[in-house]
Amino acid sequence: MTFNIKINSSEDAQALNAIATKIPVDIWIHGKQGTADAKSLLGLMLMSMEREVKLVVDDEADEKHIRKAFKDFIIE
Description:
A four-stranded antiparallel beta sheet has the order 1-4-2-3, covered by helices on one side. The two termini are 14 Å apart. The mean pLDDT is 91. It is of the alpha+beta class. It contains three helices and four strands; from the N terminus they run E-H-E-E-H-E-H.
């Protein structure tokens, strides 16, 4: 599943990383500069320069849980 998200600062990147590391499925960030593992803080810091990116979560995850976990980042 894919969500449009916004990362406004390095603090947002750290918060998103903390959430992603607690979820036991693959979570990726896709942007113009490439792709980064959301569980990699360094990768997120590089991607955060783009601000609006895509959060791609393994389809095995519960969508309601993912939406709730990343609610502060998802752009509707």
